[in-house]
Amino acid sequence: QVQLVQSGAEVKKPGASMKVSCKASGYSFSNYGITWVRQAPGQGLEWMGWISTYNGNANYAQKLQGRVTMTTDTSTNTVYMELRSLRSDDTAVYYCARRFGDYVWGSWFDPWGQGTLVTVSS
Amino acid sequence: DTVMTQTPLSLSVTPGQPASISCKSSQSLLHTNGKTFLYWYLQRPGQSPQLLIYEVSNRFSGVPDRFSGSGSGTEFTLKISRVEAEDVGLYYCMQNLQLPPTFGQGTKVEIK
């Protein structure tokens, strides 16, 4: 079945970087993009960006521009999301999800990975 | 960014009774291609979100027919015809007419 499996929880210090992986299985990897959404404790969902697994093109949320990079490895069907210069308000559960749709409009996301908790604390 | 506003923020429902969640967007979600890019997700307690409805009213694969979506322009509704225990969780609407995709605050559905 279609499945996205993410890497495990991390604890980071302010100013450090994090890199979360998302390994896809059960479908043709390059036919669907991957999106990243995060959820701060007790908060709602925030879109971070998405990446085409076909050509590596990515769109990022404006507020994260310059701090986030998404990459794809077609040899292992894995997408990576790196966030740099971490702050305490980056503490969140980070989700990857398969993206249906190829345009900047009209995309939906399913299924989602199990989530990765990243805690930023000194 | 398009602001998505859900009401109510919480809902307590007797099993077997209907439930309704409203979602309003700060701008129309109708694309020039005629489609409206409004989606509904359910996040069960301790789980990842899952897609329920895409493009206002289309149930995603495997979603029970007690879930239905409706609306147009800037006002949308998710209805559960007969709430079951497994429907407990947070419901989010999301728009993707333009970047960035944005979510509502979430509506918590509980069972009485």
Word description of this protein:
- The complex is a heterodimer of chains A (122) and B (112).
- Chain A has 122 residues and is mainly beta.
- Chain A is 0% helix and 51% strand.
- Chain A is built from no helices and 11 strands.
- Chain A is globular, with a radius of gyration of 14 Å.
- The termini of chain A are far apart.
- The mean pLDDT of chain A is 96.
- With 112 residues, chain B is mostly beta strands.
- Chain B has strands at residues 4-7, 10-13, 19-25, 38-43, 49-54, 58-59, 67-72, 75-80, 89-95, 102-103, 107-111.
- At the A-B interface, strand 9 and strand 10 of A face strand 5 and strand 10 of B.
The tally of helices of chain B reads 0
Give the number of helices of chain A: 0
Gross morphology of chain B is globular
Oligomeric assembly: heterodimer
* Mass-distribution shape of chain A: globular
- Series of secondary-structure elements of chain A, N-terminal to C-terminal: EEEEEEEEEEE
Tally of DSSP β-strands of chain A: 11
Most residues in contact: chain pair: A-B, 25 and 25 residues
Using the CA coordinates, give the radius of gyration of chain A. Answer: 14 Å
* Average of pLDDT of chain A: 96
